[in-house]
Design a protein that fits this description.
Elements lengths: L1 H17 L7 H8 L1 H29 L5 H9 L1 H33 L6 H15 L8 H18 L7 H4 L11 H9 L5 H10 L4 H28 L17 H32 L5 H17 L5 H27 L4 H27 L1
Length: 371
């Protein structure tokens, strides 16, 4: 019983860390690229992410608890790649906060229209206070946020009238948008930051490492299934399929909109705070910034980017997922390739993963900059 409880805890942490705001882009992505295309990428990219997590786990086993991703990059590739990797990690985290602010603005407009532009400002202040007050990272914040996101999915799923409607509202494959799902799905499936706490938890419990790896696989698989359920449910719920899903909910009953929005707002808050603290800590510890400057960066830069016009939800999501998070997974793969002994077959798989994540980054740069 205890073993099952421990596995479920680790799997739950991985699923909770993975499930996030990216899910609101998936109905639109499935509609534009085709339901088969979306399903295919969801399965394949989930598999790639699971393999990358296992590679990272093996690398952590080699070094124990002494080194993490950025430290490993510094060991194997030197100071300049280390600095570049910092930009990749911090850039992805900063864009995640921008995405949350974009989502919050649309959430608040649904049930608090009287607040106008003050709604996102109020959320921004509430979310930034723990960072300003120098609180420590919330231990279970990701888990709580993930649980609330799952309640959003459950609310929509249980009130859906037609689970087959996706087949009539979305094409099977749209070749013009064949690569559109890349960035959105990588952003949605990213959960490598949960590998480290799960690894530490399993080491302290002195259990067979295969259990932790199985739990991680289970967690990512559950997240992918939740995303599929959410997407199918949105198509069958009578909502208009929009780029962020939220703006298409106006035809729903008010109680349903309110439930989804309140759960979503709280879930985003529980993600915004730890990400902000992670950025602040990295700026101070890795780059040597003064505490006040690190705090100011987290407090002002994300809303400043939104005010400057960084508001295209799908493009920002693709940039964060395909470029920054894709490059983070590429770093994991490259570090693992250097650190671990590999058979020719395993090296071929690792090279394929590296190619896919690099290709995703190149495509999203093209999509974001040139289109």
């Amino acid at each position: 019983m205890v073993k099952i409880k421990n596995i479920l805890w680790s799997a739950g942490l991985m699923a909770a860390t993975t499930v996030g705001a990216g899910m609101f882009s998936l109905p639109y992505v499935f509609q534009k690229a085709g339901w088969f295309t979306g399903f295919f990428y969801l399965v394949v990219l989930a598999g790639f992410v699971i393999v990358a997590h296992n590679l990272y786990w093996e690398t952590l086993e080699k070094f124990g608890e002494k080194k993490r991703l950025l430290g490993l990059v510094k060991i194997y590739f030197g100071k300049i790649p280390y600095r570049l990797s910092l930009v990749v990690v911090l850039g992805g985290l900063t864009l995640a906060l921008v995405i949350y602010l974009i989502i919050v603005e649309r959430f608040m407009g649904l049930i608090f229209p009287a607040l106008g532009s003050w709604g996102p400002v109020i959320f921004w202040i509430v979310a930034s206070l723990p960072i300003l007050l120098k609180l420590t990272r919330f231990v279970f914040s990701e888990l709580l946020g993930g649980i609330l996101m799952l309640l959003v999915i459950l609310t929509i799923f249980l009130t859906t009238s037609d689970f087959l409607k996706i087949f009539s509202l979305a094409p099977t494959v749209d070749f013009q948008n064949l690569f559109l799902p890349f960035g959105a799905l990588i952003f949605s499936l990213t959960g490598w930051t949960a590998v480290e706490p799960i690894f530490e938890y399993e080491r302290k419990s002195a259990r067979d490492s295969s259990r932790g790896r199985s739990a991680m696989t289970l967690g990512t698989t559950l997240a992918a299934l939740f995303y599929l359920a959410f997407t199918v449910a949105v198509f069958g719920s009578g909502a208009t399929i929009t780029v962020d899903t939220i703006s298409g909910l106006l035809g729903w009953p008010f109680w349903k909109i309110t439930a989804v929005v309140l759960l979503g707002l709280f879930a985003i808050w529980t993600s915004y705070v730890p990400i902000g603290l992670e950025i602040k800590n990295s700026l101070e510890k890795d780059l040597g910034w003064p505490s006040a400057l690190g705090t100011a960066f987290v407090f002002f830069v994300p809303p400043a980017l939104v005010l400057l016009g960084v508001r295209d939800f799908l493009k920002i999501l693709g940039l964060a997922g395909g470029v920054f998070l894709g490059l983070q997974y590429l770093l994991i793969i490259l570090v693992s390739r250097r650190a671990l002994p590999m058979t020719a077959r395993k090296r071929a798989v690792v090279n394929l993963l590296a190619f896919v994540f690099a290709a995703a980054a190149v495509y999203e740069v093209y999509y974001f900059v040139l289109q």
